[in-house]
Inverse folding.
């Protein structure tokens, strides 16, 4: 029935209904299991839901994602053990080379904009296990260093295991995005074979411990890569900006990953998928830990909106993925600044 068919009786009964508060906005949840083992129609339907969430929110929860709870719990235990080490031991894990997104980054290393206060967080990063004789490592290419590891029993196995697991999950999400966008499903994933993808353990002290320096755990920013897969340890604090500018809380959902779109994906899809602005404010009074994995293509991959079916004139030039991202990090991370 359309509105002109509404009778006057219905109008008056509608008018007497108690007014309902608008439901708070939440980012959608996509159940992913049938993308791996479902029919072609199920795969297509999941791909369409992911693209719709990427267009509207730039964020979604991914449930039934195949990542085992025990593996996630072990990684958070490892993270807690790392950040409990004496500062000297954490500092011993700083990356030998700059511009790597590897090793320990102390509190306040990142400043999202020149006029902003720094991020109230410390982190430990590791990335793709390039060998010492990899040409990129030998040439000192950004993202191509070696991982550094703390002297903690089981830490390396646990963290490498989660990195490998999430890398595979992320590739499936990239396949779903390509499929949902009407492209070859392998378009993105085949250009992430020796990727600049890093995984980060992050520790946000309670807000009152950082209050002298900053008011945010992570200031408003967009991620730079293709997609980010995010795990967190049951603490709220993440917020994403909606299309109308309001902040939507993205609290953890048991057993769901949070996935968000990064700048390279926005460029590749000619603006169709949103890299939404988000921030972290750890107001609970407790320590907060999270584990994002930032999916990037291979360093030399060319990100060109003309690779996908175009619905409007390309709004972005083609860029070399690694050069584009390295330039961005150079602007806002102390550990990326070149002398
Ligand atoms: O810790 C979180 O929940 C989000 C972290 C984040 O946005 C980032 O590290 O880019
Ligand atoms: Fe982020």
């Amino acid at each position: 029935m359309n509105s002109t068919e509404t009778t006057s009786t219905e109008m008056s009964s509608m008018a007497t209904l108690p007014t309902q508060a608008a439901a708070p906005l939440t980012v959608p949840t996509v159940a992913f299991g049938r993308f791996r083992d479902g029919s072609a129609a199920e795969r297509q339907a999941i791909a369409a839901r992911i693209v719709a969430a990427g267009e509207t929110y730039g964020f979604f929860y991914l449930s039934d994602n195949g990542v085992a709870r025990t593996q996630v719990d072990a990684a958070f235990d490892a993270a807690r053990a790392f950040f409990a080490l004496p500062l000297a031991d954490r500092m011993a894990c700083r990356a030998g080379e700059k511009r790597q997104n590897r090793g320990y980054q102390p509190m306040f290393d990142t400043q999202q904009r020149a006029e902003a206060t720094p991020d109230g967080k410390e982190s430990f990063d590791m990335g793709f296990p390039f060998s010492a004789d990899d040409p990129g490592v030998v040439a000192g290419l950004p993202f191509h260093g070696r991982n550094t590891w703390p002297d903690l029993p089981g830490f390396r196995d646990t963290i490498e295991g989660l990195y490998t697991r999430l890398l595979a999950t992320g590739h499936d999400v990239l396949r779903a995005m390509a499929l949902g966008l009407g492209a070859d499903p392998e378009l993105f994933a085949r250009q992430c074979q020796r990727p600049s993808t890093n995984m980060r353990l992050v520790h946000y002290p309670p807000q009152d411990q950082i209050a002298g320096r900053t008011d945010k755990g992570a200031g408003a920013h967009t991620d730079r890569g293709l997609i980010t897969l995010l795990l967190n340890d049951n603490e709220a604090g993440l917020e994403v900006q909606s299309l109308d500018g309001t902040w939507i809380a993205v609290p953890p959902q048991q057993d769901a990953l949070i996935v968000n779109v990064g700048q390279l994906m926005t460029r590749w899809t000619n603006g169709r998928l949103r890299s939404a602005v988000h921030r972290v404010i750890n107001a609970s009074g407790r320590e907060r830990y999270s584990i994002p994995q930032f999916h990037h293509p291979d360093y030399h991959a060319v990100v060109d909106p003309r690779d996908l079916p175009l619905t409007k004139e390309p709004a972005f030039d083609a860029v070399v993925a690694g050069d584009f991202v390295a330039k961005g990090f150079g602007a806002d991370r102390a550990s990326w600044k070149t002398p």
